[in-house]
Amino acid sequence: MVQILSGIQSTTAALDAERTRLDVISENIANAHTTRGPDGKPYQRQVVVFESALQQAIGAEMQPQTPTLHVSRIEKDSRPPIMAYEPGHPDADANGMVALPNINIHEEMADMIAASRAFEANLAVVKNARSMALQTLAIGKH
Question: Is the pTM of this model over 0.90?
């Protein structure tokens, strides 16, 4: 069967991956001031690790393999917490130092803008593919 929306699988996989990236970034921003998590430690920034994989041919008919992007894993950033002097804070140690999450809001916002733009670009691909498919079907009607 002729595939009208060729490449749409890789685009939808990229949309899913960027959505996951946006979710992780928003979680990082929301926890930028969380000094004590369930483990008693400050929140650790999380990062999304992407991986490109080739889809396997479906069925007996060999189809061209399309590279797709997907989330390989979500891992914690290895940077140490930021130490700040706040003697009145409930999580301050004996020296008045508080361990704050290793999150830079400016870095998170830049990552959010990049992920948002990538999401928008992939969405534009889906819209253009749909438009081209509809125009192709319209040719057959005339």
Answer: no
